[in-house]
Amino acid sequence: MTELGGTYRLPGTNLTIKRMGYGAMQLSGPEIFGPPRDMGEAIAVLKEAIELGINHIDTSDYYGPHITNQIIRKALHPYPKDLVIVSKIGARRGDDKSWIRAMAKDEIVAGIHDNLRNLKIEAIDVVNLRMGGLTNPVEEPLLEQLGVLVDLKKQGLIKHIGLSTVTAKQIVDAQKLTDIVCVQNLYNLAKRTDDTLVDDLAKQNIAYVPYFPLGGFVPLQLETLNQIAAELNATPMQVALAWLLQRSSNILLIPGTSSRNHLRENIQAASLKLSADVVSRLNAIGAAPTDLAVTS
Fold first, then answer.
1. Which of 8, 22, 62, 63 is catalytic?
2. Is the CB of residue 55 less than 8 Å from the CB of residue 17?
3. Is 63 marked active-site?
4. CATH 3.20.20.100 matches 7-221+249-272
5. Measuring CA to CA, which residue among 144, 136, 196, 202 is closest to residue 164?
6. N or C end of the chain: which has fewer CB within 10 A?
7. What integer is the mean pLDDT of 131-138?
């Protein structure tokens, strides 16, 4: 078992998280809808993730919908004491597999109770309020929705609050109402819009959790990345994950997969050390267009 990139303690909490976590989105069926093609493999992936030392699972009850959380419960309940489950609210799924924003008070409350019921827990460790568009933040008010989460936290149904797909201004606005322990935005080797935000959050000891760290459903295809991977006898995806871990100590990774072999490859990235020269070459890649078709 690797060191999983070390650990990180979420600010103002007693939650210490291994920096290499697991994103559960791909546990459900095609297009993140319905049951998985292989339920046995989905359960095995989760069990092996825990066996390999992962203690941070990112999920949402709108994955499936409901399916992903039900698989997590089936595979892992009763949960290990150190397991941190992070969910998000702000959307729901239509019968036609569409992604629909769900930001009204009753929708947020229902979403929290759906998570609690399907995960079979009394309180969610961290809930991210998911704002923005499909992949990019939108400068819009968020305090009304955030206030609903704050009330649910006072009721003991949520332990801590994070944000997803937000701007720096929205984070500042949110901090006027409640503590924010993590931010989850789209960020990877090719999509670097949040470079400044990552550093600013690090100064506040706030975790930054990049979703689609490998490019999402349009995997990173970069000549420089492929060349470096060949030089290091690693896969391009391992190099991309290792770069994120070395990019900043407040970055927590949640690469997702429905395959145990792919899970093992992802975890091996945590022990891949990149030289200063390699990091410099990767940094030079900069931002690149990304075409992603689903929400996170």
1. 63
2. yes
3. yes
4. yes
5. 136
6. N
7. 91
